[in-house]
Structure formats: structure tokens, C-alpha cells
Specification:
Helix content is about 30%, strand content about 25%. The protein has helices at about 40-45, 100, 135-140, 140-155, 170-180, 195-200, 215-225, 240-245, 270, 285-300, 315-320; strands spanning about 1-5, 15-20, 30-35, 65-70, 85, 115-120, 125, 160-165, 185-190, 205-210, 225-230, 245-255, 275-280, 305-310, 330. The chain folds into two domains: about 1-140 and about 285-330, Quinone Oxidoreductase, Chain A, domain 1, CATH 3.90.180; about 155-280, 3-Layer(aba) Sandwich (Rossmann fold). The longest helix is centred in the middle third of the chain and has 14 residues, at about 140-155. The chain is α/β, with parallel strands linked by helices and about 325 residues long. Helix 4 packs across helix 5 and helix 7 packs parallel to helix 8. Strands 3, 4, 5, 6, 7, 14 and 15 form a seven-stranded mixed sheet that branches. Strands 10-9-8-11-12-13 form a six-stranded parallel sheet, sandwiched between helices. A two-stranded antiparallel sheet has the order 1-2. Strand 12 (about 245-255), helix 9 (about 270) and strand 13 form a beta-alpha-beta unit.
Length: about 325
């Protein structure tokens, strides 16, 4: 089979290689890949900034969908011909994660999905709703589940809540869609008026361009009186304003560090307003199944408009890093 390996960090590190086609062992299934989706974590992995000590070579990309074409002995829940996605975390089924479970992730340290065939544990794959295209289904393991975990599993989102969503990337777009689905009021900020118009078309209650209004926290605080939830993907340069805009007893889900990992902010608002600040490391299999039930019931369609051939992975990652996309960038196999 063909696979794309990360052989060294940085430019030119991705190489198309031949590998033996794997056979499933006891309790395993083999998935013939149909599509993958990109996450910012993948770009950080390939550039070497995510884990510089990651052993190489590595097959990157954590998110993918395919068809089971072979099963090993002892497999009872999955069958040949099923379309499935691989769970980002291959072992975290429910409850609280241990340090060992948090290391069982595709696309580093485990080989990821940028290959024609992947062998995974039976418990590491789940079937996907029939109404989704392959590219749409591929977007679900990281971005969708992260947004669901932040808002529903950890955030206990309810109708009428106000949600501040930073940006219009994968996690943020899913947070917008889930907020609308749950009857909440999403407020979206972006540096692009065109993207804000698209966010409105998806149901954003309010939008704001943070480039033309740098003190966006004060504006949103005046508009809302304080938000219930923040999808915090910016990191260092946004965290201070997130603290400002969150109401007492509100919830900040820390998901990304796109503007740096060192916040220039005082911790006093966390104390004075009794805020809940929770990190989100994607989520577990039980959360994925609950999310898929909601997606299927609502026939929700993920935003996967940019789809390239899987062999264009390196250029697709550069496109992702530029930040010009809306929703998700995906790769398809022939």
C-alpha cells in the first residue's frame, strides 16, 4: 500500500512511500481509507512544534473515514462493508482519562490516517451517519468532538446560553453549529467580514470583527452582559479578553493557542467571578457516540468545502496554516 510518512520535521518532510498492506490481528479491523481531514495539531506535528521528540517516521493526520474491508479473529461489533471513522484517542472509552490513555492518539504518537489502509482496534472505530459524505464524516474525530466536549460534555450547554466563539476554523465552526442546534446564542468573532457573513448564514446571533475592533471584549460585554461559555482557541493574545467577557460562574473552554501559549492576563477575574476554566483534549468514545446521535437526528452537515487529493497533503497543510479557510480542509483517496 501507499502511505505518506513524516520523515523529518519541517519543509519537505512528508514522503510518499510503499509499506506492506497490514493484516488485522485479534480484535482488530482493517479500514480502506476514503477521506482525511486536517487539524492545526497536524500542522504543528509536521513542523515539529507539537512534540519535537516524536519518533519518526510517522504517518500523520488523526482524522479519517473509510470502509472496513477485513476483520481479525474475535471481532464481534463491527463487520466488513461498514463505513467507520477512527477515534482520535484509540483507548479512551469513557470517564476520566489517565496519562496513559491521553497518549493513545492517532497522528502522534500512533501512526495516523494518511495511508491507504489502517489497522485499528475494533473499539477504536465507530460507524458514521449515512447522510454524511466521506469528507464530512472525516471532519468529526477531532474538531467536532472537541467542540461537543467543550460545550455539551463539560460545558452543560442549554438553550438560551450565550457562547463566544473565536474564529471560523474547524472547532469554532462546529461550536457554532452545535450552539444553534442546542438553542443557544452564538457570538462569533473573526478578522474577516466575509467569514462573519458566512457565520451569520449558519445562525450566528451576533458577529464582530476583532481586527477593526481590537477591544472586542468590552464590546461583547456591553452587548451581552457577559457570556456563559467561551470557545478559547486564540491563547495568549485572547485569554485576557475572554476573562473580561465571561459572566460570573461562566465557563471558558481552553482549546487552542493560535496566538501563543503565554497569556498576558491577570488571574484575578477567575477568582473574583468564580469562573470555570477547563482544558479540552478532544474527548472520549462515549462522547463521540452521543455527538453522532445528535448529528444524525438533526442531519447536521459539517462544513467541508475544500477537498484535495490525499497526495496533496503538504500543500493542504500549508493552506491550513495560512488561516484562509472556513470550516475544514479535507483530503480524499481515489
Amino acid at each position: 500500500m501507499h502511505a505518506i510518512e513524516l520523515q523529518h520535521f519541517g519543509p519537505g518532510g512528508l514522503k510518499l512511500v510503499d509499506r506492506p498492506t497490514p493484516e488485522p490481528g485479534v480484535g482488530e479491523v482493517r479500514v480502506r481509507m476514503r477521506a482525511c481531514a486536517l487539524n492545526f495539531r497536524d500542522w504543528m506535528t509536521v513542523s515539529g512544534s507539537y512534540n519535537p521528540r516524536q519518533p519518526l517516521p510517522l504517518v500523520p493526520l488523526s482524522d479519517g473515514v473509510g470502509i472496513i474491508d477485513a476483520v481479525g479473529p474475535g471481532v464481534s461489533q463491527r463487520k466488513v462493508g461498514e463505513r467507520v471513522i477512527g477515534l482520535f484517542n484509540q483507548r479512551w472509552q469513557d470517564g476520566e482519562a489517565t496519562p496513559e490513555l491521553l497518549r493513545a492518539t492517532l497522528g502522534g504518537p500512533l501512526d495516523g490516517m494518511l495511508r491507504e489502509y489502517a489497522v485499528l482496534p475494533e473499539a477504536g472505530v465507530v460507524p458514521v451517519p449515512d447522510h454524511l459524505t466521506d469528507a464530512q464524516a472525516a471532519t468529526l474525530p477531532c474538531a467536532a468532538l472537541t467542540a461537543w466536549t467543550a460545550l455539551v460534555t463539560q460545558g452543560h450547554l442549554k438553550a438560551g446560553d450565550t457562547v463566544l466563539i473565536q474564529g471560523t476554523g474547524g472547532v469554532s465552526t462546529f461550536a457554532l453549529q452545535f450552539s444553534v442546534l442546542m438553542g443557544a446564542r452564538p457570538v462569533v468573532i473573526s478578522s474577516s467580514d466575509a467569514k462573519l457573513e458566512r457565520a451569520k448564514s449558519l445562525g450566528a446571533w451576533q458577529t464582530l470583527n476583532y481586527r477593526t475592533e481590537p477591544a472586542w471584549g468590552k464590546r461583547i460585554l456591553a452587548l451581552t452582559g457577559g457570556v456563559d461559555h467561551v470557545i478559547e482557541v486564540g491563547g495568549g493574545q485572547t485569554f485576557g479578553q475572554s476573562l473580561l467577557v465571561t459572566r460570573p460562574h461562566g465557563h471558558i473552554a481552553v482549546i487552542g493557542v493560535l496566538s501563543g501559549a503565554q497569556p498576558d492576563a491577570t488571574l484575578l477575574p477567575i477568582l473574583m467571578k468564580n469562573l470555570r476554566v477547563l482544558g479540552v483534549m478532544v474527548g472520549h468514545a462515549a462522547g463521540m457516540r452521543a455527538m453522532l446521535r445528535a448529528i444524525e437526528a438533526a442531519r447536521l452537515a459539517p462544513i467541508a468545502e475544500r477537498v484535495l487529493p490525499w497526495t496533496k497533503a503538504e500543500s493542504a497543510l500549508h493552506e491550513l496554516a495560512s488561516g484562509g479557510h472556513f470550516g475544514k480542509i479535507c483530503l480524499e483517496f481515489p
